[in-house]
Amino acid sequence: MSFAGKTAIITGASSGIGKLIAEGLARGGANVVLAARSAEQLNELAAAINQTGAKALAVATDVSDAQAVQALVEQAVATFGRVDLLINNAGYGVFDSIEQIEWKHIEGMITVNYFGAMHCIRAVLPVMRKQNSGHIVNVASVAGLVSTHNMGSYSASKHALMAASEALQIELRGTPIKCSLVCPAPIATPFFESADFNKMSRFASIFGMLKPHDVTEIVLHVAANPTTQRVIPRIYHVFGVAYRIFPAFTRWLVKMVG
Questions:
Q1: Would 1 be classed as within a structural domain?
Q2: How far from 250 is each of 145, 149, 202, 205, 254, CA to CA, in Å?
Q3: CA distances from residue 97 to 74, 108, 162, 200, 204 in whole angstroms, order as listed
Q4: Mean pLDDT, residues 44-64
Q5: Residue 245 pLDDT > 70, yes or no?
Q6: N or C terminus of the chain with fewer C-beta within 10 Å?
Q7: What's the total number of domains in the chain?
Q8: How far, in Å, CA of 123 to CA of 157, rounded?
Q9: CB atoms within 10 A of CB 190
Q10: pTM for the complete prediction?
């Protein structure tokens, strides 16, 4: 896939699929702006990408800080002149019951997974409107489609991002700016080192953990070919549709799986 001449901002770029997405975009010819909280990891990645002949800019950014996100976008424009692609990939997850989960984790997931993405969207949209082009790719989760025990808080944050994405798609209709939504199942990345995977519902990973490279390839494909929604694996899309049509049956099925 070619991204020659494009400039992309990738949040959560220091590790996991964010790092792989950044590397893939750079291989495709894009200028990549790497955003995450870890300056050291970002600088290492930027140096590695620059050594290949591609162009990378590392900007340590906390997406929960609207001013920091605005500065990120301004630095991207100052360096590369434009922003063609935003990959909202930064994420945070902790799994526990509504009753037992600590409030700081509830607040953290909403702040990073939803508010963080919204900060980025609101910062890049004026740039994209001015240049009359752009593509926003929001990475949500299958947990935003169907929730279950110990995943209520995480699901709420991802469902919020999904709802905002659907609204944005309508608001951007008829313009050259696109918004795509990607909803993967659990991925075998360092993300689950901070999340207590043992408390995750078996339903969430019934088809196993996804391979990072497989998800990365799909995100890159979506980045090059805008789509309304892409669920990974596609079987989870069936559960999402079933939940809307047959909610009682779907809840029973989720409960039986555990």
A1: no
A2: 12, 14, 15, 16, 6
A3: 40, 15, 22, 10, 15
A4: 98
A5: no
A6: C
A7: 1
A8: 20
A9: 12
A10: 0.89
